[in-house]
Amino acid sequence: MTNQSAGGDAPPAESKRSQHDYNKRSVQELKKIANGQWFRIHQSAGVPASCLTGKHGPCPICGGKDRFRHDDKNGDGTYFCGGRCGSGDGLKLLQLYSGKTFAETLSWLSDLLIGSQPVVSVKGQASTLVNEHSRTALNDVWNESQDVQDGDPVHLYLTRTRRLVLPRIPSALRLHRSLPYFEGKTVIGEYSAMLATVSAADGKPVSIHRTFLTLDGLKAKVSAPKRIMKPVIAGACSGGAIRLYEPSDVLGVAEGIETALACHVATGIPMWAAISSTLMEKLIVPTSVNEVVIFADNDTNQVGQNAAKKLAQRLHSDGKTVKILTPATPGTDWADAVTQEL
Fold first, then answer.
1. Kind and range of the H or E element at 28?
2. Which CATH number among 1.10.260.40, 3.30.470.10, 3.40.1360.10, 3.40.220.10 corresponds to the domain 242-341?
3. In whole angstroms, what separates CA 215 from the centre of its chain?
4. What is the pLDDT of residues 234-251, one digit of tens each?
5. Contacts of 249 (CB under 8 A, 6+ apart)
6. Which of 1, 74, 112, 185 has the lowest tally of Cβ within 10 angstroms?
């Protein structure tokens, strides 16, 4: 897309449906699905969040100083520009910002809504975009879990194995007593597991992160002890995170759950776990947050540092104050640094 802010995902010049002859019904169906979601849609397209606050400011397309306002009436993404862009709904703004044809814009929007739109929660209402098998599986696993208690495998893992001094365990984390572990379609065993709610960019729960454990609080000896379940909608984790603590005007971000918890213990900053470097780059931060502290991993291949820099660049463009903190020792994260000082 033209006029794209750092980190935005631009609509491709071509896609598998770019030549589709969208009729009036399909356009209205897309608008219906997009209703109430235009902030995330426009931000995903690269429109700076500073232009989507509902206040007058520069137009993200034609510039100026105080000619544009994104008022989002009735959840339709509406805007007004006193310059050449005029006024219209979210779809028109998306097309103007992209510089693409109407069909190409619709194709991109369709791909976004069908491929990554977080429109329901794990326990949410029915939707044609929801993978019902995934939702059932997610609900079954969550309903079988329980609060973390002193001495259980999750508590032992966090406090003894990971050496974290936690006054309380965040409610986003729970214990599953006996969760099957699959290699392909074959169950190779059942293990205790630390479950973590994965919330989409709009705050709705869409998946579950699992850390498979032994009864005495060690990581299970399996090929991949940390896994994310298939979300209710494909791609719904993009932009989201494990929201361990409610942010104030300050939010801390780290990759792993344990690292985020360690940073909270050390600083008191409310923390989110981005899960991976790839998802960290795509993280969407609430508009109420003014300052973001990124606790980057010190990866020898620079993957963690590069993800932190890309996120910081995008957040800076949205007008937020951003700090990147990296531990001094290569090959470590902040969980390592904090626990070594305990």
1. helix 24-34
2. 3.40.1360.10
3. 31
4. 888 889 999 999 988 999
5. 288, 289, 290, 291
6. 185
